[in-house]
Amino acid sequence: MPKTTKAKKKVAKPKTKVVSKPKKTTAKAPIKISKTYVPKDTEKYMCEKHKVFFRIKLNEWKKELVKANNEALYNGSMDDNSISADIVDQASSYTDKNVEMKAINRQIKLISEIDKALMRIRDDTYGFCLDTAEPIGLKRLMARPVAKYTIAAQEKHEKDEKVHADD
Q1: Beta-ladder partners of 135
Q2: Which H/E stretch holds residue 2?
Q3: CB 150 within 8 A of CB 129
Q4: HSE-up of 155 (CA within 13 Å, CB side)?
Q5: How far is CA 124 from each of CA 4, 52, 54, 141, 145, rounded to the nearest angstrom?
Q6: CB 132 within 8 A of CB 100
Q7: Nearest 10 degrees: CA dihedral of 26, 29, 31, 35?
Q8: In this structure, are residues 141 and 127 in contact, taking their beta carbons and an 8 Å threshold?
Q9: How many angstroms separate the Cα of 95 from the Cα of each of 72, 77, 98, 102, 109?
Q10: pLDDT digits (tens, 9 = 90+) for 47-98
Q11: pTM of the full predicted structure?
């Protein structure tokens, strides 16, 4: 019987993966501002300090609104337990609840506007008019932190709304 030779199977060596080292990011330390800090016109418009200031202001405002809404909803649900036999009292209670719900709905819309303003801060578009890209101005933002337009652009929007409302 002739000798048979078995061919040796070649075992492939595992390929070594070349793994690049993670790049070191030079993350900036978060900017801290004092509780008494107020943005100044002499500073560069929408510098990091301004953004931090308005982010804090918007978040605090949002917290207050959420807390007020939760309290109003809780108190409103507690009032449902009292049923009055007097039809005038029932009508008055219904009117009060209707007014309260409208106020809550306005606050919910405002919370949504605050969230949009916070997104604009993250996108670096906060403080600039959505129509013209011009600076809205610190005075206007201090008075209305959710402002999206310059005063002139806002007036134009309101005029356009009035015209379309008459149609």
Answers
A1: 128
A2: none
A3: yes
A4: 3
A5: 77, 12, 12, 15, 15
A6: no
A7: 170
A8: yes
A9: 15, 15, 5, 11, 21
A10: 999 999 999 999 999 999 999 998 887 776 655 555 666 788 788 878 888 8
A11: 0.71
Return the ∠ at Cα 55 (arms to 155 and 147), rounded to 5°. 5
CA distance 99 to 94: 9
- Gyration radius of the chain over CA positions: 30
Cα 21 to Cα 3, 24, 27, 36, distances in angstroms: 54, 9, 17, 43
- Cα distances (Å, whole numbers) of residue 50 to 6, 9, 55: 78, 69, 8
Tell me the residue type at 95: T
Kindly state the DSSP code that residue 147 receives in the 8-state scheme. -
User: What tokens were used for 120?
Assistant: 């604009």
Any idea what the Cα angle at residue 101 is, between residues 111 and 118, rounded to 5°? 0
* Degrees, nearest 5: CA angle 14-17-21: 155
Homologous superfamily of 48-166: DksA, coiled-coil domain (1.20.120.910)
